[in-house]
């Protein structure tokens, strides 16, 4: 048996080709990728990592961080990337649940992380591309070859945590073939080749930046310009030397605000892709008017990788997410009983295919609850298939806010707010936001007789919730609207405050 994912990568690349460039001018060829990922894999083994062990990684974006992902794949370990915005409180849960052998963080975070990792018997190492005493030092002293650990299509390559509408975060288990099959399909559908140069401005701890952008690049043997984060000015400057970009809708919303975005500037670009959140048809149209390019929108999620895509060659229809990808079956069902609905009817989107994950880490009941008997995964997204076969996402059956492409589960934020002294109850909702798509908003009811300020709600959350989950606004109300069943009517709240984030003219 071979290493299913890494063998495919190795067979797709030419050692002399450039893999990653960073703005300082430093370049990594594919030959260097093979050598450095081998050194890091050797370093992982030296640190005691064995096949199947989880390796949790919370580090700033860098080429070395991506090599670490590849090293885990080669060592047969399970890569567990963590958002750099997560607080210690959030990390404590992930480490307790995943029980990683090794936790790798930025040097500045080591001391704090060590205090929680020690209770979990996990060893903490740092990744500092230039600093001493980090895993990079150990790696540099290792061999540039590594006998890749045998892993089959069904073996785990990664666990990515996604919050839940109720209760605890769940670790989505992704296999070697989930990742390989999806990236191969996307490479072919989007026609990536070795001549492509991708602007990579996404974080590399979620599906979009890690698997969609990086695995597609690797399997096409193309190159990417690695930016630490999205900066519209910097991205605009790079367009004349790049061929494609992948982004969340906020990237496009910010780009169309610049008068530098023109047909001339983007003449050498062949493809702009959007996903992770709905792209407004308005943004799509304005981008086309300014550049002549029609953004290609696709739809996916952590558990399933990518499910649908607008066509490369056919018509890219604004406001739709295109067709199911080759090999992916998608159906619309009645959310109540799972009965398949006809085209044109709105219901639950369900998918099956080699892209769909293996289940939630150590949560067999949750896994069973989200799959149908015949293996279809219930996405929680509401959609419709039109007469031409295009899939439309028309809403969410799950209580979820998507802000700038990051998911926020209201339940998690409400639980934190409800614990604060002086709070009786709260409802967290997403309201239309001109930059982030949706803005997290907390509607709070105080205890009888208590009065509170916005700061009294927000300050204590800073320690407990990642910045992007913290409400952008807090509104105090005497009580929450409820239906006859006692359920909070969030739709009424969303209607009442719909214009909260509208710019004041
Ligand atoms: C940053 N902030 C956010 C935020 N990002 N708040 C809400 N939502 C976000 N997405 C905070 C900052 O900490 C800051 O706090 C303030 O908001 C303003 O920050 P900013 O400077 O404007 O933000 P910026 O750093 O430019 O980041 C915005 C962004 C970034 C959109 C570029 O969030 C981003 O790269 N998002 C991509 C997320 C992604 O990769 N999603 C894919 C998930 S995978 P302060 O303290 O200054 O007030 C998936 C599956 C699929 O969904 O289909 O792909
Ligand atoms: P995540 O759990 O972070 O992977 O987010 C997945 C969710 O993002 C999906 O279930 C959808 O609700 C949403 N999503 C992803 N792509 C799109 C898109 N193109 N349009 C609308 N929603 C999307």
Characterize the quaternary organization of these chains: single chain
Kindly state the mean pLDDT as a whole number? 96
Query: What fraction strand?
Result: 15-25%
The number of helical elements comes to: 15
Question: What hetero molecules are bound to the protein chains?
Answer: malonyl-coenzyme A, adenosine monophosphate
Distance between the termini: 64 Å
For the sheet with most strands, the description reads: 9 strands, mixed
Helix-and-strand structural type: alpha/beta
Give the overall shape. globular
Percent helix range: 25-40%
**Physical arrangement of strands within the biggest beta sheet:** 2-1-10-9-11-12-13-14-15
Low-confidence stretches: none
Number of E strands: 25
What Rg, in angstroms, do the CA atoms define? 23 Å
Explain how this protein is built:
The structure is a single chain. With 505 residues, the protein is α/β, with parallel strands linked by helices. It has 15 helices and 25 strands. The strands form six sheets. The chain has a nine-stranded mixed β-sheet with strand order 2-1-10-9-11-12-13-14-15. The protein has a four-stranded parallel β-sheet with strand order 4-3-5-6, sandwiched between helices. Strands 16-17-19-20 form a four-stranded antiparallel β-sheet, with no helix packed on it. The longest helix has 17 residues, at 30-46. The radius of gyration is 23 Å and the shape is globular. The mean pLDDT is 96. Bound molecules: malonyl-coenzyme A (MLC) and adenosine monophosphate. The site of adenosine monophosphate has 18 residues, from strand 13, strand 19 and strand 20.
């Amino acid at each position: 048996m071979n290493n299913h994912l890494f063998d495919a990568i190795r067979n797709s690349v030419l050692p002399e080709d450039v893999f990653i460039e960073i703005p300082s001018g430093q370049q990594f060829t594919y030959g260097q990728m093979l050598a450095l990922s081998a050194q890091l894999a050797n370093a992982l083994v030296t640190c005691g990592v064995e096949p199947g062990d989880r390796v949790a990684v919370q580090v700033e974006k860098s080429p070395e961080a991506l090599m670490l992902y590849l090293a885990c794949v080669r060592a047969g370990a399970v890569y567990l990337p963590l958002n750099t915005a997560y607080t210690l409180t959030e990390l404590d849960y992930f480490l307790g649940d995943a029980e990683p052998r090794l936790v790798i963080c930025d040097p500045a975070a080591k001391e704090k992380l060590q205090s929680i990792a020690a209770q979990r018997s996990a060893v903490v190492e740092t990744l500092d591309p230039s600093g001493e005493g980090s895993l990079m030092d150990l790696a540099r002293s290792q061999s540039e070859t590594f006998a890749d650990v045998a892993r089959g299509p069904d073996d785990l390559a990664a666990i990515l945590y996604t919050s839940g509408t109720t209760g605890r975060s769940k670790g989505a288990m992704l296999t070697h073939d989930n990742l390989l099959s999806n990236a191969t399909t996307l490479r072919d559908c989007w026609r990536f080749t070795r001549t492509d140069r991708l602007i990579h401005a996404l974080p590399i701890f979620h599906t979009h930046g890690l698997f969609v952008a990086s695995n597609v690049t690797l399997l096409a043997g193309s190159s990417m310009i690695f930016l630490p984060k999205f900066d519209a000015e910097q991205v605009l400057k790079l367009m004349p030397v790049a061929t494609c970009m992948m982004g969340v809708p906020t990237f496009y919303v910010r780009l169309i605000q610049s008068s530098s975005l023109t047909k001339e500037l983007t003449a050498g670009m062949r493809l702009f892709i959007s996903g992770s959140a709905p792209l407004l048809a308005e943004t799509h149209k304005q981008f086309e008017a300014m550049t002549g390019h029609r953004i290609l929108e696709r739809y996916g999620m952590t558990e399933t990788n990518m499910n649908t895509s607008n066509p490369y060659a056919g018509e890219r229809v604004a406001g739709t997410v295109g067709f199911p990808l080759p090999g992916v079956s998608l159906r619309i069902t009645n959310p109540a009983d799972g009965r398949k609905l006809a085209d044109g009817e709105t219901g639950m989107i369900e998918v099956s295919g080699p892209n769909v994950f293996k289940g939630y880490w150590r949560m067999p009941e949750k896994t069973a609850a989200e799959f149908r008997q015949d293996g279809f995964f219930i996405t929680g997204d509401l959609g419709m298939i039109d007469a031409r076969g295009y899939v439309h996402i028309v809403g969410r059956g799950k209580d979820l806010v998507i802000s700038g492409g990051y998911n926020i589960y209201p339940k998690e934020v409400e639980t934190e707010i409800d614990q604060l002294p002086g709070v009786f109850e709260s409802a967290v909702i997403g309201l239309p936001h001109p930059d982030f798509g949706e803005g997290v908003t907390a509607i709070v009811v105080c205890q009888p007789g208590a009065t509170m300020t916005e700061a009294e709600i927000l300050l204590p959350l800073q320690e407990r919730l990642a910045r992007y989950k913290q409400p952008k606004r807090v509104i105090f109300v005497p009580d929450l609207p409820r239906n006859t069943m006692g359920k909070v009517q969030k739709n009424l709240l969303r209607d009442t405050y719909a214009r909260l984030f509208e710019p004041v003219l």
